[in-house]
Design goal:
Elements (H helix, E strand, L loop, with lengths): L3 H4 L8 H13 L10 E6 L3 E2 L6 E2 L4 E8 L5 E6 L1 H11 L6
Antiparallel strand pairs: 1-4, 2-3, 4-5
The structure holds zinc ion.
Zinc ion binds next to loops.
């Protein structure tokens, strides 16, 4: 079963620029970290909400988990779909854009 509700509207590869725009917006308003975090894990997801698109990363999909230290020393956790993770990385590093 693979329908739009399960994967979100951005994950068919045709709207990559929309994800990138969203990532840039979130970097701009501070809701995502600007730099690649020192610790990044990829592993099976458990219905976490994606920090970029807001859709759940469904159990059985691979999710990327990013731990980023914030001001004050607390560690902030972010979870991403694979597509969302790459969009975020691209937004962080404009040189990667082709
Ligand atoms: Zn996502």
């Amino acid at each position: 079963m693979d329908n739009e509700l399960h994967t979100g509207p951005f994950h068919d590869g045709s709207a990559r620029n929309q994800l990138l725009d969203l990532a840039l917006t979130r970097l701009g308003n501070g809701s995502l970290p600007r730099t690649a975090a020192p610790r990044i894990y990829a592993g099976p997801a458990h219905d976490e909400s994606c920090s970029l698109c807001g859709f759940p990363i469904r159990t059985g999909e691979i999710g990327y988990e990013v731990n980023s230290p914030s001001q004050g020393g607390a560690v902030q956790e972010y979870c991403f779909h694979i597509f969302c993770f790459h969009a975020w990385r691209e937004a962080c590093e404009p040189r990667l854009r082709t």
